[in-house]
Specification:
19 strands, globular, 41% helix, alpha/beta, single chain, Rossmann fold, 3 domains, disordered C terminus, 5-stranded parallel β-sheet
Length: 661
């Protein structure tokens, strides 16, 4: 790497000529492809934003000037230029670089992100804070056209036009729909309207007209003429109506044009929007040819571009969901599916192809998706609202106010529930059991495997649910093989998987398979433990809890969800209200942000892996035994097994167990 090896910070980049920046762009693409091929990550978007990233760091003093990336999944080049090149091999790995902008990672990351449509609001906040402090620096927001489908982006634009703070919004448009506008005439118009002399003359003419009596009419005529001319050639009228000076669209891979335009508009006051057209996957044929496929990838062969195939064996929950939706769609013509720009990620591609008239992709607009689903349900359709758990957080008000309050039968399917791995805290689905359970009349379910997920989905349609249902499932393979038949399910009821009343593990969702393995591990230590599949987190199975209240001595709940407000707290409240005399412990995601890494690394870090849970339960058993001798006597070991050194002893092996310690 002739140039990148010498760039330790943006200051080194500024020593190069404009011609040399083209070579840097080629090296950056090679670096990004090499890194992502080894770690996985977002490829196409990062390749498409190389020239824009270089231009911003070349012209601005990033670190002093504020640069806010929307979603920030296109910041790999930014990381390379800001002293993190040597760490790119750790991208998205446990204790390595984050896959998104992260304030704690670098002083050049002004604002963290992971969700879409936040950049304009955040940048406007930076600008307002700057103005209040009397400081003087640039604030730039970079937002993609996909993120412009989110309502928050327009709220930010509207407020920015009102405040009139100095702010640059760069719309990085990588869809093909505007390619016809990036031609010679558009380039010529942009070069004129962004030229410093033109804008100085424009301002002088504007000021001069203020001396005339009919200045308002003259200025109005001038503005309408300018708008009319530009509206014939460029799509900027909308932004101008919001109070922005609009420039573009221009070729986002034309480095000299980018630099010239950015340099020309640096001195403009008020909110400015620069519209650039880029190509996803630029410079890498496989990604250019199929940008959707190469948007987010796992490890791949960088020479051929070949992505790893789907490993044989058990299907993912997402695949089971998608297949089941096709089954349901075939049986029920009133069933519709709603996605928020995540059809491939949520398994809805086949449904959308088989039933296109019943599939709705509303863009990155989860709040709208929820209210849209409510309207469809009120209108007589049977909507399935399918959203990643982390993104469903954004639609909480609409779920509560528009769906649940009106008792509308919307089935809310939350993929990626629990810890999702390398994308980290912005994408972990750690809170859905908590926030969904706070909503009255909401049924909240978490299937233990793919068969149970399939049964739940079919049941919601066949049983004519009277209100909303939320079903959560992980980004993982199902733990057991799928069966041909749809297994019956007793709605709202838990099930015993290993019936032992004295010591009981109550597990939900992903933790059910874990609980069964923990029970086997404890059995090897001569400790017999019961396991309950708490497939319905709300409402709780009160009949089952009453049984445990009367008979159990130690109950441990397991959930891959935040402990605060989760299933464990709900169970604890019930046991307290019903005078449970034994001991209860809840294990789940602690009150902290969990970093990125493999799911197993993260589960181990927070004590939710099988070994950690087994150790915790064993410790609880020992502590409970020491505090209650009568409890020790009733512990049941396998007949004929003698306790090993350090293990609990029962009346079957000694008559000393009921004596005080």
């Amino acid at each position: 790497m002739k140039y990148l090896s010498e760039i330790k910070s943006p200051a080194d980049l500024k020593k190069l000529s404009i011609e040399e920046l083209t070579e840097v762009a080629a090296e950056m693409r090679t670096e990004i492809i090499g890194s992502v091929s080894e770690t996985g990550g977002h490829l196409a978007t990062n390749l498409g934003s190389v020239e824009l990233t270089l231009a911003l760091h070349y012209l601005y003093e990033i670190g002093h000037d504020k640069l806010i990336w929307d979603v920030s999944n296109q910041t790999y080049g930014h990381k390379i230029l800001t002293g993190r090149r040597q760490q790119m091999s750790t991208l998205r790995q446990y204790k390595g670089l984050a896959g998104f902008a992260k304030r704690a990672e670098s002083r050049y990351d002004d604002f963290g992100a992971g969700h879409a449509s936040t950049s304009i609001s955040a940048a406007l906040g930076f600008a307002a804070a700057r103005d209040r402090a009397g400081e003087d620096h640039h604030v730039i927001a970079v937002i993609g056209d996909g993120a412009m489908t989110g309502g928050l982006a327009y709220e930010g634009l509207n407020n920015a036009g009102h405040l009139k703070s100095n702010l640059l919004v760069i719309l990085n448009d990588n869809s093909w729909s505007i390619s016809k506008n990036v031609g010679a005439l558009s380039k010529y118009l942009t070069s004129i309207t962004s030229d410093e002399k033109f804008n100085r003359l424009r301002d002088e003419v504007w000021e001069m007209t203020g001396r005339f009596k009919r200045r308002d009419k003259i200025r109005d005529t001038m503005a309408r003429v300018e708008t009319s001319i530009k509206s014939l050639l460029v799509p900027g009228t909308f932004f101008q109506k919001l109070g922005f000076r609009y420039f573009g669209p221009l070729d986002g891979h034309d480095m000299p044009l980018l630099l010239r335009t950015l340099n020309n508009i640096q001195g403009l006051t008020g909110p400015v929007l620069l519209h650039v057209a880029t190509t996803k996957g630029k410079g890498y044929d496989p990604a250019e040819g199929n940008p959707t496929k190469y948007h987010g990838v796992g490890k791949f062969d960088k020479l051929s571009g070949k992505l790893p195939g789907v490993a044989a064996g058990l299907p993912s929950y997402t695949q089971v969901f998608g297949d089941t939706m096709v089954e349901i769609g075939k049986k029920h013509e009133d069933v519709v599916a709603i996605s928020a720009a995540m059809a491939p990620g949520t398994g809805l591609v086949e449904f959308s192809e088989k039933y296109p008239e019943r599939f709705y992709d509303v863009g990155i607009a989860e709040g709208h998706a929820a209210t849209f689903a409510a309207g469809m349900a009120a209108g007589g359709s049977k909507p399935f609202l399918v959203v990643y758990s982390t993104f469903m957080q954004r639609a909480f008000d609409m779920v509560a106010h528009d769906i649940a309050l009106q008792h509308l039968p919307v089935v809310i399917c939350m993929d990626r529930a629990g810890l999702v791995g390398n994308d980290g805290p912005t994408h972990h689905g750690a809170f859905d059991l908590t926030f969904m359970s706070t909503i009255p009349d909401m049924v909240v379910a978490a299937p233990k495997d793919g068969n149970e997920l399939r049964s739940m989905l079919h049941h919601t349609v066949a049983a004519e649910m009277p209100g909303p249902v939320a079903i959560r499932y992980p980004r993982d393979k199902v733990p057991t093989a799928m069966t041909a038949e749809i297994q019956p399910i007793e709605w709202g009821k838990w099930e015993w998987l290993n019936r032992e009343l004295e010591i009981v593990l109550i597990a939900t969702g992903t933790m059910v398979a874990t609980a069964l393995n923990v029970a086997e591990m404890l059995a090897e230590k001569k400790m017999t433990v019961g396991v309950i599949n708490a497939r319905f987190v709300k409402p709780l199975d009160c009949a089952m809890l009453d049984q445990l209240t009367a008979s159990s001595k130690l109950i441990v709940s397991l959930e891959e969800n935040a402990l605060r407000g989760g299933m464990g707290q709900a169970i604890a409240g019930y046991l307290t209200d019903h005078a449970f005399e034994g001991r209860f412990k809840s294990l789940g995601i602690p009150d902290q942000w969990v970093t990125h890494g493999t799911r197993m690394d993260l589960l181990k870090e927070i004590g939710l892996d099988e070994r950690s849970i087994a150790d915790s339960v064993q410790k609880l058993i020992i502590e409970s035994t020491r505090s209650a001798g009568s409890f020790l006597r009733r512990l049941r070991f396998r007949k004929g097994d003698a306790p090993e050194s350090g293990e609990l002893m029962t009346s079957e092996t000694t008559d000393r167990t009921d004596k005080p310690e």
